[in-house]
Amino acid sequence: MGMRNIKTAIAVVLCVLISRVLKLEYSFYAAIAAIISMGNTVTNSFRTGKNRMLGTLVGAGIGFVCASILPGNPILCGVGIIVVIYLCNLLKWSKSASIACIVFMVIMVNLDGKDPFFYSINRILDTFIGIIVAVLVNYFICPPNYIKDINKNCDLIVEKIDNIIQKRISTMEDSELNTLEKEINALQKQISMHEDEFRVSKKSFSKVDNIKDTLKLDNNIMIHLKVIKNLKSKSSLSNENQDAQNNNDIIKAYIMSEINTDLKKMKEMVK
Fold it and tell me: How far apart are CA 257 and CA 137, in angstroms?
């Protein structure tokens, strides 16, 4: 069972308890908001919650207006949906359009004689509670920390490059370079996610900055390895041209010197 599952359950429990303390009529609206807003990172929780809150405001506002005119009317429901989607697109809140439509329909068809204004306010309050709870739980309870995996993956990439250069460069395959490039790109994504998080110490940032420097060297080496691979392919097709072969050997020797220099720097960085 992952921590995200546990944190989602904790957020739901807190939403139900808070709803009871505040004597809110429908605790499940707050719970739903918490479940949807519980992302794999604090930043994702905040972004998802923000989109849901914006959508709720639009849906509740239009829902209040339409429900005040004629609640549950099928034609007005259709017109309201068009208005909700149009407003979300106009305000460039397209990611909030779906939840805005849902909130609008909840208000239009679930009033059961209740006051449209207070019903709309309660839906906004429910959503707000769920979002805040989800973000706080994700922030304070075992917040995602990528630094350990980042360090591990960085070490593996350096080790793989070292292995290719020291032992297997003569038999280097395109598939190896493709795999290495994918791993470098994946590490870059991990670093980006880590930097997006709110709870990052200065020490953690310094470690990430160091790894970002090694990534630059990784990319340099990748380019050099591809050049060597290309030279090898060309030389195999034109072995009869001795001058061309000699030029390739000179270029390869220079590139290998650059690669070894970068590799030495990388090993010092990851110590």
Answer: 51
The pTM of the full predicted model, rounded to 2 decimals, is 0.66
Structure tokens at 183: 């791993």
188-220: pLDDT as tens digits: 888 877 776 655 445 556 667 778 888 888 888
Answer yes or no: CATH 1.20.120 is held by domain 147-269: yes
Half-sphere exposure of 208 (CA within 13 A, CB side): 21
Nearest to 56 by CA among 22, 95, 27: 95
Judge whether 95 and 104 are in contact, CB under 8 Å: no
Helix 147-163 to helix 242-269 angle (10° resolution) is 150
d(CA 156, CA 75): 61
Quick check: 104 and 82 in contact, CB under 8 A? no
In b/e form, how buried is each residue of 16-46, taking b as 16+ CB within 10 angstroms? bebbeeeebeebebbbbbbbbbbbebbbbbb
Q: Are 96 and 49 in contact (CB under 8 A)?
A: no
Q: Which residue type is seen at 38?
A: M
Contacts made by residues 204-211, CB under 8 angstroms, sequence distance 24+: 204/147, 207/147, 207/150, 207/151, 208/147, 208/150, 210/269, 211/150, 211/151, 211/154, 211/187, 211/269
Percentage of the chain with pLDDT > 90? 41
Buried b (16+ CB within 10 A) or exposed e, 159-190: ebbeebbeeebeebeeebbeebeebbeebeeb
